[in-house]
Design brief:
about 230 residues, alpha/beta, six-stranded mixed β-sheet, 6 helices, 11 strands, globular
């Protein structure tokens, strides 16, 4: 299997190749230049591996939540490649990608991640992820968007990840004080983690047709109404 994974959901932009389980990644922090940077990262990966797009057998992408523009870029690129190459697709939650990257880190000692991304409008995208027996990040319940003071979580020790811990850290720390053991507010999603999660799905026949390669916004508007401000 040769799987290409991409992510453009935040200010970071990354691409990764999983070739028979071996993952290589190109990562760049490139706010507002994702379209130009992404194709350069993909081309570099393919060149280094001495393969072409026609050698790919599956695709994966960070489906959101995140920047509305960013997740549309990733979905659009995957739709184009998937249609042109007739490949199966795996959408991977941006929140899951953050958790998976932490779980893959040998220095991480926790099997639970409290993932919070700044959603603006004084809200956070929030999800709790636990590492399963296959080493994959699995969501406990559902990912949500709302005030930091309203997040729900299981009573188990874990690590706090994501930009929401920078923008709403005081509230989240107070709310999860008994359970959060470490915090990485600078954590960003990585295509390598998306590839890690997606290759398991492909191996187990869970790839989707390219028509299913859609952005996942979690919420459907980006600004409050005047009456809500």
């Amino acid at each position: 299997m040769i799987l290409l994974a991409i992510d453009t959901a935040t200010d970071a932009c990354s691409a990764a190749l999983a070739i028979d389980g071996q993952i290589t990644e190109r990562f760049a922090f490139t706010p507002k230049t994702h379209t130009q940077q992404l194709f350069a990262l993909i081309d570099a990966l393919l060149t280094d591996a001495n393969i072409t797009q026609q050698d790919l057998t599956a695709l994966a992408y960070g489906s959101g939540p995140g920047s509305f523009t960013g997740i549309r870029i990733a979905a659009g690129v995957i739709q184009g490649l998937g249609l042109a190459l007739a490949l199966p697709v795996v959408p991977v939650s941006t929140l899951a990608a953050l958790a998976q990257h932490a779980f893959n880190n040998p220095d991480n000692h926790f099997d639970t991640a409290f993932v919070a991304m700044d959603a603006r409008m004084n809200e956070v995208f929030f999800g709790v992820y636990q590492k399963d027996s296959a080493g994959l990040a699995q969501c406990v319940g559902e990912a949500t968007v709302g005030p930091a003071a309203a997040v729900e979580f299981p009573h188990t020790p874990g690590v706090g990840l994501g930009s929401g811990w920078a923008s709403h850290g005081a509230i989240l720390t107070e709310r999860l004080a008994l359970w959060v053991r470490e915090i990485d507010a600078t954590a960003l999603p990585h295509a390598g983690a998306i590839a890690y999660w997606a290759q398991y799905q492909i191996d187990h026949g869970r790839g989707l047709p390219v028509a299913k390669a859609m952005p996942v916004y979690v919420r459907d508007r980006v600004a409050k109404k005047e009456s809500e401000r």
